[in-house]
C-alpha cells in the first residue's frame, strides 16, 4: 500500500510540472488559446491585450507558464473558480478589478503626500489617499502591490530632524579689536553688499571665539537681537528675525534720527544622522540716507555650511555704521526749564557695528 501511495504522489508531482511551452513571435491571444487547448483548461482574456511573445520552457506548472508568457507584455492572470483570466494592469480597464485586490498599509513616519512624491511614477497609479493621512490604499494586481509595499518599506523611514540653536548678536567692532580679532574681508571667503551705510556679508569665521562671545554678552557689550531653537528636516525651511537700530545725523543742525533694521535668517538644507548641510540666507531691510530723507533698501545673500552636531559656529552676518548720541552740558543749569537748552550740548559718535550669527545644531531624532 505504501508503495502505491509513493507512486501516486510521484505521479501527481510529475503531472503538475508537465507543462511544456514553445512559442516564437506568436500573438499572445493565439498562444493563450493554444495553451488552454493543450492543458484542457479555460483561459479567457481582456480584449485589450495584444502583442507577440517568444518563450520556451519545459516541465513547468501551468501557473509558471502563464507567468512566463505574460511577463514581457506586463499582463497578469487570476483564477476565478476553474477559469483563468488574463487582464491588463491599466486601472482604466473595465476588467482591472478582476485581477486586482485592495491592501491597506499604515505609514509610520511619512504621510501619503510624502509617499506620493517619493514613489516612482509608475507606482503612483495604484495608490490612493484615505481619510487617515498616515495610511495608504494600494489597489493593484498582487505582484504590483507586493512591489509597491516593498518600496514603501524603503521609503517609510524615520526622518532625521535637527534642532538648531540660533542667536543673532550685535557687537561693537572695537570690542573685536580689543580681543585681537580682525573682520575677514578676503574676497574668496565673503559675499558683501554695500549701499553706503550697510555692508551685508556672510563669512564662516575660522576663529573659535566662543568664550569671547559669551563674555561680551554677559558684560552687556554685545546684544542678543534674537534667539531661538529651530527644528529642521531635509528639504524644509526655518527662520528667525532680529531687530536693531541705526542712528543717523541729518543736515547742518545734526538732527538725530534712529531707524530700525530687520535681519532675517532663513535656514534650509539637508539633515543627516551625523551632520547637516545647511544653506543660510540673510535678508536685511534697512534705509539709505539721502540728505534729509531715507530710502528703504533691502539685500540678501546666502552661504552654505556643512556643520557637525554639538559644535558652535559663528558666521559674519551684517556690518553697518551707526551714530550714537550722548547729551551733556553744565550740571544743574541744563535742566532749568526754558533756558536749560542754552547749557546743553550733544556729542555724536560713529561706531562700526557687526552682527554675528551663532549656530549650534544637534540631532533631535524624531519626525516633525
UniProtKB/TrEMBL annotation:
Does Membrane show up as a keyword for this record? yes
Annotated localization:
Membrane
Q: Which SMART domains did the record assign?
A: STN
Q: What is its main location?
A: membrane
* Annotated Pfam families: Secretin (PF00263), STN (PF07660)
Family per similarity comment? Belongs to the bacterial secretin family.
Q: What is this protein called?
A: Type II secretory pathway component GspD/PulD (Secretin)
Amino acid at each position: 500500500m505504501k508503495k502505491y501511495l509513493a507512486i501516486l504522489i510521484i505521479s501527481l508531482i510529475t503531472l503538475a510540472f508537465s507543462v511544456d511551452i514553445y512559442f516564437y513571435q506568436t500573438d499572445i491571444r493565439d498562444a493563450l488559446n493554444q495553451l488552454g487547448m493543450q492543458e484542457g483548461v479555460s483561459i479567457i482574456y481582456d480584449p485589450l491585450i495584444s502583442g507577440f511573445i517568444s518563450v520556451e520552457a519545459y516541465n513547468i506548472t501551468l501557473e509558471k507558464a502563464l507567468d512566463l508568457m505574460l511577463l514581457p507584455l506586463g499582463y497578469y492572470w487570476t483564477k476565478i473558480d476553474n477559469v483563468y483570466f488574463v487582464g491588463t494592469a491599466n486601472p482604466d480597464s473595465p476588467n482591472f478589478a478582476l485581477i486586482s485586490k485592495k491592501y491597506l498599509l499604515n505609514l509610520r513616519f511619512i504621510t501619503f503626500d510624502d509617499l506620493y512624491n517619493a514613489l516612482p511614477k509608475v507606482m503612483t497609479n495604484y495608490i490612493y489617499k484615505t481619510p487617515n493621512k498616515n495610511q495608504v490604499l494600494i489597489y493593484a494586481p498582487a505582484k504590483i502591490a507586493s512591489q509597491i509595499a516593498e518600496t514603501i518599506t524603503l521609503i517609510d523611514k524615520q526622518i532625521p530632524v535637527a534642532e538648531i540653536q540660533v542667536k543673532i548678536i550685535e557687537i561693537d567692532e572695537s570690542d573685536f579689536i580689543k580681543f585681537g580679532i580682525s573682520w575677514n574681508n578676503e574676497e574668496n571667503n565673503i559675499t558683501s553688499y554695500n549701499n553706503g551705510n550697510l555692508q551685508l556679508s556672510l563669512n564662516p569665521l575660522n576663529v573659535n571665539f566662543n568664550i569671547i562671545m559669551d563674555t561680551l554678552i554677559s558684560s552687556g557689550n554685545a546684544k542678543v537681537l534674537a534667539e531661538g531653537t529651530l527644528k529642521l528636516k531635509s528639504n524644509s525651511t526655518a527662520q528667525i528675525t532680529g531687530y536693531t537700530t541705526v542712528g543717523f545725523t541729518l543736515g547742518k543742525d545734526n538732527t538725530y534720527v534712529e531707524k530700525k533694521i530687520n535681519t532675517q535668517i532663513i535656514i534650509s538644507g539637508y539633515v543627516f544622522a551625523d551632520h547637516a548641510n545647511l544653506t543660510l540666507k540673510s535678508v536685511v531691510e534697512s534705509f539709505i540716507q539721502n540728505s534729509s530723507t531715507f530710502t528703504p533698501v533691502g539685500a540678501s545673500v546666502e552661504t552654505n555650511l556643512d556643520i557637525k552636531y554639538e559644535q558652535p559656529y559663528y558666521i559674519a552676518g551684517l556690518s553697518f555704521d551707526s551714530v550714537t548720541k550722548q547729551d551733556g552740558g553744565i550740571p544743574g543749569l541744563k535742566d532749568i526749564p526754558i533756558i536749560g537748552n542754552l547749557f546743553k550740548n550733544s556729542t555724536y559718535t560713529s561706531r562700526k557695528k557687526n552682527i554675528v550669527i551663532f549656530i549650534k545644531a544637534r540631532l533631535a531624532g524624531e519626525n516633525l
